[in-house]
Design a protein that fits this description.
- It is built from eleven helices and twelve strands.
- By secondary structure, it is α/β, with parallel strands linked by helices.
- The strands form two sheets. It has a seven-stranded mixed beta sheet with strand order 3-2-1-4-12-11-5, with helices on both faces.
- The longest helix is centred in the last third of the chain and has 28 residues.
Length: about 325
Amino acid sequence: MLKIVIDAMGGDNGVKPIVMGVKNAMKTKRFHAIIVGDKKLIETYIDSNDIVEIVDCPDYIRMEDNATDALKRKESSIYKAIEIVRNNGADVVISAGHSGASMSLATLRFGRINGVSRPAICTTMPRIDGKATIILDAGANVDCKVDNLIEFARMGYEYAKSVLGYDNPRVGLLSNGEEDNKGNELTKEAFKYLKELPYFKGNVEGNDIFNASVDVVVCDGFSGNLVLKASEGVAEAISKILKEEIKKSFLAQIGSIFMLKAFKSLKKRTHYAEYGGAPLLGVAKNIIICHGKSNARAIECAIYQGINAVESKVIDKIAGNFIK
């Protein structure tokens, strides 16, 4: 049976949403859950009929701690969780704790896939056709070199094909214009090499992330994280603005009743929780990094994402791409 280790510590909302997300996922998927964290806190939300394994570990890396602290804190929850996967005690680790610590430990303890110089966070964004566009890097590497962007393109292609099931993923390079000569020094130089890849479409702009013109958008971690946070902010702002405008008008309130299904659908397609977390591509084991404010639904979806990554053998397929 597939085994999933979940780091229950360090999330913004405490242990409860992590444990509830695990329990919800177990209702629809069959897997062995290993929850790492403060046993007393975890058991508060565990029923007698819940079949989960708990690894007691009160210590964890707090958000104000440096990511490098995790290397010394071998009794911390994320260190123990990653070691379980490293030693083949589980297939994937899920964490909503300190993302920097998770990335550092995964890179050093799992090791990188041969041919990958820098792992990348691969995040999912909604688009108008109901599918998703993936962006990488979304924050692991603030400063990148040309080789990094080429690696991101190859890894993103394999993830879109293997995990998302896209037959012929199209890859674009994020720039300030679609023309071949647009961009900064990094993107202009990367373009020269990326255009040799058969699945490379060319330069894309920010709006192309959502209009289904490409399946994979490649960028440095600085730009990718800005896009991610800005998109989350826009989605939340639109939701609040709609609610405020509806309250101002009686007719709008009546109309909203008939639009309730559409509003729910919009929220589902744009809310980060429905996409779970972001895999760190380029390391030799599976890890899904979740938003610090993840609710139970986000953890549940992150587990599904982890299961898909394991079952699709995406790590082997990425490694195979770098052998060619």
